[in-house]
Amino acid sequence: MARPPFPKHLRQFQAQFASEEACQDYLALCRWPDGFSCRRCGHRRAYAIVKRRCWQCAACRHQVYLTAGTVLHNTRIPLTFWFWAIYLMTTDKRGISALLLQRQLGLRRYETAWMMLHKLRRAMVNAAREPLHGEVEIDDTWIGGTQAGLRGSRQLKGRRAALVLVAVEKRGKASGRVRMGVIPDFKTTTLKAFIKQNVTPGSTIYTDGLKSFAGLEESGYHHIARTQPLRTELRKGTKSVVPLADRAIGNLQQWLIGTYHGVSRAQLQIYLDEFVFRHNRRKLPMAAFQTLLGLGTGREPTPYDLIRGARDVQ
Ligand SMILES: [Zn+2]
């Protein structure tokens, strides 16, 4: 998909997306990178009907809602607010809370900010996912409770710790993409299910010596298991057998503490998805922005039927 210019900083953003019209122009540019073309009659000219957030074909009057297929659909909140929220969400490394968003946008109701963030998180979860491949490190960790090493007042008091499995692509010494999932137990079948879903067969998988990782060869992976040095030795500088996975886990824990002050076990997977989304697009703010808008995944414009199905939009 063609990428219209993306603002490099806040002032540019403010200038580029200052009005409802400007936001709609951006959506149109994403939808028709080579210029408008009517789906019904092929005509190349259209009028913008800003109030209805749609473009109308100049020949056959066919209308296309600019927000169809995006998270902005079915919402009365001004597009400028949405664009701000997405910008803040994708450019702030840690993400923002509903309270902060409410203040930043000057929203009257907290619920509005909460709902916006909720929708955006859902777009993060639904982001298209190709399985990891090549060399992949996998490790497990506890999140919450004392096991995770979250000490002091921010510890998740009274909440049971959750088991999380982390997979990281090795790109030389650097991390590629990551995947994270809450798992119920350490059973071989549980770990295998996660790996099958998140790693392409034929990949090489590095793990510690945990017995539950046994049997990966039969599932079509090259498996390199090594005994992880003791925690005390790791602290003294002995190299981990899964250094990239360790780093990802450390970053995740810092992020959970810093941004959300801990999350409940029930919500954890949603936050893991957000962390993964951020990590995997950390060098691509524009791609992140478009994905959250709902524009990044489909190359084709949304089919007419889907658009027509959303007649309730005003
Ligand atoms: Zn037409």
Could you explain the architecture of this structure?
This protein is α/β, with parallel strands linked by helices and 314 residues long. The protein folds into 2 domains: 10-126 and 288-308, no CATH class; 135-276, 2-Layer Sandwich (Nucleotidyltransferase, domain 5), CATH 3.30.420. 38% of the residues lie in helices and 15% in strands. The chain contains 11 helices and 8 strands. α3 (79-91) crosses α10 and α5 (110-126) packs across α9 (268-280). It is elongated, with a radius of gyration of 23 Å. The two termini are 28 Å apart. Residues 38, 40-41, 43, 57, 59-60, 62 line the site of zinc ion.
Question: Secondary-structure map with pairings?
Answer:
Elements: H1 10-16, H2 20-31, E1 46-49, E2 54-57, E3 63-65, H3 79-91, H4 98-105, H5 110-126, E4 135-143, E5 162-171, E6 174-183, H6 188-198, E7 204-207, E8 222-225, H7 231-235, H8 243-260, H9 268-280, H10 285-293, H11 304-308
Parallel strand pairs: 4-7, 7-8
Antiparallel strand pairs: 1-2, 2-3, 4-5, 5-6
Helix pairs in contact: 3-10, 4-5, 5-9
The protein binds zinc ion.
